[in-house]
Design brief:
Oligomer: single chain
Structural class: mainly alpha
Radius of gyration: 23 Å
Shape: globular
CATH architecture: Orthogonal Bundle
Number of helices: 13
Strand content: under 5%
CATH class: Mainly Alpha
Distance between the termini: 40 Å
Strand order of the largest sheet: 1-2
Number of strands: 2
Length: 296
């Protein structure tokens, strides 16, 4: 009996050790570093909340925070909704070639982000990109500058053409991933629910809204939570798309951390990471609380 009680802990010991060494430990050390001034060499100087005070008056921190929140709010919900709609279409009995379409829609998720960034920068380049040329060719006087342009409208100064381009590309990349997970959730929906809805005379939209959507609510919660976490920590697509055309309208928190790290301001970059960690934690807890209320 004693051996049996110990064996589960032995099985858990290795993964817990890996998690501690490569995730929990670095996270704690990174949060602690935010209270020090350190350039990476020599002794670290304790400054308390000095780094966080500097963030309040930092003219580049607030645009980075705003851009991150805008990116999350305008990319995560559309990706989830698009994934749901694509899944319901592909899952339909009348749909032909579903295997090929599934593969094509999921492909952007697994393609190298550097390759994605290079291709999209070529497509959107105002100096000869395919999309700007096509816009001019169909009769428009000139094309928007998708990589370095200003605000789309004057009364939304925080919504620039480069940010919209990043959001559209992010939705394009992640909608297929959401679709695949929704397909797994849809396979577990009881067919009798659809049959009962048909007997009651429900329309397709009614079935989609009152049967399908509630039945996949746990998957929706999972995709929203993980999508928000990933959106708050976005770096790769922003760096790949804007590394040569970086402006205050496209800098996100993780990219700002990277730039500060390059300047050997490790304590300051760790403080920004602390803000990002707190923001991620709060957003996740709020979402889980809302999802639990709705489930109850």
């Amino acid at each position: 009996m004693r051996g049996r009680s110990v064996s589960p802990y032995l099985f858990l010991a290795f993964p817990v050790a890996i998690l501690t060494v490569f995730t929990v430990g670095p996270t704690i050390l990174g949060l602690a570093l935010g209270f020090f001034d350190w350039s990476g060499s020599g002794p670290a100087r304790f400054v308390g909340i000095g780094n966080y005070r500097s963030l309040v008056s930092d003219s580049r921190f607030w645009p980075a925070l705003r851009n991150t929140l805008v990116f999350v709010l305008l990319s995560v919900p559309p990706s989830v909704v698009a994934g749901f709609l694509l899944a319901t279409i592909v899952q339909a009995r009348w749909f032909v070639g579903r295997t090929l379409v599934r593969t094509a829609l999921f492909l952007p998720t697994v393609v190298s982000i550097i390759a994605v960034g290079v291709v999209w920068r070529w497509l959107l380049d105002s100096a000869g990109g395919l999309l700007p040329r096509a816009i001019v060719a169909v009769g428009f006087e000139r094309s928007p500058d998708f990589l370095q342009g200003g605000p789309i409208v004057s009364w939304l100064p925080w919504l620039s053409w480069p940010m919209v381009s990043l959001i559209v590309i992010q939705v394009w990349r992640t909608a297929g991933y959401c679709m695949v997970l929704y397909l797994a959730a849809l396979s577990g929906v009881n067919e009798s629910l659809y049959e009962a809805a048909e007997v009651d005379g429900a329309t397709r939209v009614g079935v989609l809204r009152n049967v399908t959507w509630p039945e996949v609510a746990p998957m929706t919660a999972f995709l929203m939570v993980t999508g928000v976490i990933g959106g708050l920590q976005v770096f790769d697509i922003v760096w790949a798309m804007t590394s040569a055309t970086e402006t205050d309208s496209t800098v996100t928190l993780n990219l700002y951390i990277f730039r500060e790290f390059q300047q050997s301001r490790l304590g300051y970059s760790a403080a920004i990471g602390g803000v990002l960690f707190a923001l991620t934690l709060v957003a996740t807890m709020l979402q889980l609380r809302v999802m639990r209320r709705n489930a109850a």
